[in-house]
Amino acid sequence: MFMLEKDFPILNRKINGHRLVYLDNASTAQKPESVIKAMDSFYRQHNANIHRGIHTLSQEATKLYEDTRDKVQKFIGAKHREEIIFTSSATEAINLVVWTWGHDHVKRGDEILLTEVEHHSNLVPWQILAKKKNAKLKFIPVSLTTYNLQLTALRQLITKKTKLVAVNHVSNVLGTINPVEKIIRAAHRVGAKVLIDGAQAGGHVPVNVQKLDCDFYVLSGHKMYGPTGVGVLYGKKELLNEMPPYRSGGHMIKKVNLNSATWAELPHKFEAGTGNISGVIGLEAAVDFLNSPNPSLAKRGTPSLLQREGRGELLKYESNLTAYALKQMLKISGLKIYGPQNTKDRIGVISFNLKNVPPHDLASILDSRGVAIRTGHHCAMPLHQKLGIESTARISLAIYNTKEDIDAFIAGLKYAQRLLSPPRPPAWTSPKRSRAGEGEMKEGVNLP
Amino acid sequence: MTQSYSSIIKNHYHHPRDSGKLSDYTHTAEALNPLCGDETKVYLKIRKGLIEEIAHETRGCMICVASASVVSEYARGKALAAIKKLGLQDIAKLLGVSISSARTSCATLFLEAIWKAS
To answer: Which residues span the domain enclosing B78?
Structure first.
């Protein structure tokens, strides 16, 4: 076992009498003990508002909160600490850019380039902006054979009219790691800015914003083992400096008169009101968990989950487990995977459908055996339209998942297939509008 | 509570009754479950308060399709007013299993379409 269960207390839960097999990590990851403790300890020992008070508790709370900014800065390789803005979610971080930078710079006739594989959070805000500004949305297509973005189209898609390119680092449906470096370079050649939605990448793929040279990068705290209610916006300092405030009120001001106000310096300009202090402090513990020596790993001689350079230990472990999951899944007849069938440039987010077993019903059957998966359109309806399906089932792996988890999932798939597939030989034929088979229906069920 | 599956659900999902369009319907409506993508469209031929004919086009999970199938079958020939009074428990009875809270919206989508249509 890679991780001890004591590191993640929820893994000791029994679900419907079975050991919890949690394979819904792309929705939200479970929290290590250290994250839970950090938040608990904040409320028990240090609770106070930040940046306001002279008293001891306020100083302690401020230090804990601001320490997180330093940690996140290092975690994603930002040049300046004030380039890290805490938001309530990755969604809010994207909306911040849309309604400040986007609102100021996108004009009638301009183009915003997205991809066909965006989560709704990196699509709908841009749709609203484009409509308001009479700007045009364009999309990098996805290949239905390789499931990769078709970058050959970039030359036509990025034009002098392109003001902004917004693309996910990792697809929350296909699991693909997108070639964002190439997209960023192409966008910068025409002077467009680039926002990378890293909600699915954080904690699974090493991120270095300076190397990427992206203009904005967003993270979701709760998908990288931190608490819900915390997101991160990274923006290049010069851009953030010229952007107007997103939300206004307390803390984001320098001086206020009855009829006017001036803004605080970065990062405070974008952190109006009392933020999610305990959540940010929880996020620090999550980054520590990903960054620092870990007891379970130290024993194996690997000091860090997510090493600074290249493919870290976490990536290797998750990649091996993904390979195992793909191999086992491909053995099942009638199972179709939407995404690459190898582990090259992909993470352990695997969407699939099983013939004759709708995703929702599969999820119900798996749940009865303690296996948690996600079903639906995963907030990517246009991608599902392109794939020609309404919904998929999805497993998504995390650091605490094991081969035993995959085996339990596979056994559940086979059980669901046996249980829910059409009766054989068919109990009846069913011509259109047939009323046959009433013998099977309880005759004359009396309803009140 | 976990969701159980009956042979009724299985059979009505794999062989839905009254599936298709009605050409001479008097009422029709669609209902959509955005969470999971279930879609259903009901066609009703109503005369003097009675459901003379009923059909549906339903795409979705087993619970949703089977619910549309068993309710259609049950509703034919009955008073519209009585069918509009059906609830989750009635559908559960027709399906032969209890419906878990996570699947309630799947089970009642077809009823929603009937309410909308009439």
So the answer is: 7-115
Q: Which residues of A touch B61 (CB under 8 A)?
A: 358-361
Kindly determine whether residue A447 and residue B106, on different chains, have CB atoms separated by under 8 Å.
no
Q: Which B residues, 51 through 90, put their C-beta within 8 Å of a C-beta on chain A?
A: 55, 59-63, 70, 73-74, 86, 90
**What's the pTM value of the predicted model, to 2 decimals?**
0.91
Residue A437 scores a pLDDT above 80: no
Average pLDDT over residues A316-321: 89
ipTM of this complex prediction, to 2 decimal places: 0.90
Q: Considering only residues A1 and A88, tell me which one the structure prediction assigns the higher pLDDT.
A: A88
- Which of B22, B43, B61 should be substituted to probe chain A, the one whose Cβ sees the most A Cβ atoms within 10 Å? B61
Please enumerate, as own/partner, the contacts of A351-356 that have beta carbons within 8 Å and a separation of 24 or more: A351/A173, A351/A174, A351/A175, A351/A378, A351/A392, A351/A393, A351/A394, A352/A392, A352/A393, A352/A394, A352/A395, A353/A389, A353/A392, A353/A393, A354/A393, A354/A413, A354/A416, A354/A417, A356/A417, A356/A420, A356/A421, A356/A422, A356/B14
Q: For B90, which residue in chain A has the nearest alpha carbon?
A: A447
Domain count across chain B: 1
Please name each of the domains of chain A with its CATH number. 5-23+311-417 (3.90.1150.10), 34-288 (3.40.640.10)
* Contact with chain A for residue B117, Cβ under 8 A: no
Question: Is B2 part of any domain?
Answer: no
pLDDT score for B37: 80
What CATH number did the domain enclosing B68 receive?
A: 3.90.1010.10
